[in-house]
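Tokens as discussed.
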């Protein structure tokens, strides 16, 4: 078999199970890749096992990480079932190549991890990544089969990990054993995401056709209900400053309606998906995440690492990241007035905003660097295999 073969592992090795992977890109995929890349740089090895997608190879190296795709490229339930069956055979056949199983998200992937753990004797952990209405608990408990899945995971998964204490609280309230849940934040490569130089800032604005003296605010994420972008657009409507620009980066099924909502304000630009989000961070002054539900958002971590002053809502992992008035500004969710006031403060108090950005960058370096996060996971994997 390519990449792995049937060799025995003498050092910790982790089978990363994820229901979607590149070219599909989302928060879970980004974190899975970042963690796997960093683990490969250390004594802990990692590879990814994911469903086959149309047009993707069965095996490849993606940014140093071995990726194995199994099953048939089918939509919906049939695709999930194919992944479960093929993935289980793959894991059992290659059980000597890893020491632990790490499932990303409490989806069918978590069920695969639990069954594979029972058959191979290898410990499995599942990461719950989001809270509130879009979270793992809420979406799973809404259906009978989802509730059955959660009950199964409670009994047959050895350990759980989540990036925020709000997610852990939801899990405990649902009946998960608190002692089995470990909180490990999402990580970021602080060598890749870092504050730009003055020259880089000017060049980034030039490429985006933005005036060098403009006040630039960005949002990055899916244009879907949980992100609360409509509240940001409404807050921006109160802005009458001609040198201000709002860049909305992302795609989603709400885009058409949001464009109509913003039609009267020419300072709002819809940029679509960005191949290089760092270029936008380099051009911006402020990052806004007006979400109604989140786990620990990658875009916010990236913006903080790049030294942007950030505005977020008082939810989930956002409150774990932003200390109000020190590493950013927190406002109530769904409150356009509060968002407008925070934006106005950032605009009029440039020195204050700059200090928030510096503090945010320092926070990510100290607490969220992927090197530090991977070390926590390494210790976690070792503790599982030693129990």
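Sequence:
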């Amino acid at each position: 078999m390519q990449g792995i073969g049937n060799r025995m592992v003498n050092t910790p090795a982790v089978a990363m199970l994820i229901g979607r992977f590149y070219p599909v890109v989302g928060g879970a995929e980004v974190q899975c890749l970042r963690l796997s890349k960093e683990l490969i740089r250390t004594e802990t090895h990692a590879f990814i096992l994911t469903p086959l997608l149309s047009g993707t190879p069965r095996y490849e190296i993606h940014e140093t990480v071995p990726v194995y795709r199994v099953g048939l490229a089918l939509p919906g339930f049939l695709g999930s079932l194919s992944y479960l069956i093929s993935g289980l055979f793959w894991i059992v056949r290659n059980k000597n190549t890893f020491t632990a199983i790490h499932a990303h998200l409490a989806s069918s992937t978590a069920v695969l991890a639990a069954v594979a753990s029972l058959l191979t004797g290898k410990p499995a952990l599942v990461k719950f990544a989001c809270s509130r209405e879009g979270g793992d608990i809420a979406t799973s408990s809404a259906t009978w089969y989802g509730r059955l899945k959660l009950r199964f995971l409670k009994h047959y998964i050895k350990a759980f990990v989540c990036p925020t204490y709000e997610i852990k609280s939801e899990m405990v309230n649902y009946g998960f054993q608190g002692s089995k849940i470990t909180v490990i934040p999402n990580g970021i490569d602080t060598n890749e995401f870092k504050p730009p130089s003055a020259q880089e800032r000017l060049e980034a604005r030039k490429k985006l056709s933005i005036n060098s003296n403009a006040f630039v605010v960005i949002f990055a994420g899916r244009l879907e209900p949980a992100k609360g972008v409509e509240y940001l657009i409404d807050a921006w409507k109160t802005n009458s400053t001609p040198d201000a620009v709002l860049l909305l980066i992302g795609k989603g099924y709400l885009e058409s309606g949001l464009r109509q909502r913003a039609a009267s304000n020419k300072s709002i630009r819809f940029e679509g998906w960005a191949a290089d989000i760092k270029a936008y961070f380099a051009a911006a002054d402020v990052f806004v995440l007006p979400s109604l539900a989140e786990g620990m958002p990658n875009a916010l971590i990236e913006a903080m690492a790049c030294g942007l002053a950030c505005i977020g809502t008082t939810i989930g992992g956002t409150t774990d990241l932003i200390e109000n008035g020190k590493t950013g500004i927190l406002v109530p969710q769904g409150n356009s007035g509060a968002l407008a006031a925070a934006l106005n403060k950032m605009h009029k108090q440039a020195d204050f905003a700059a200090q928030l950005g510096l503090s945010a960058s320092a926070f990510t370096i100290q607490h969220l660097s992927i090197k530090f996060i991977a070390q926590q996971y390494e210790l976690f994997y070792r503790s599982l295999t030693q129990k």
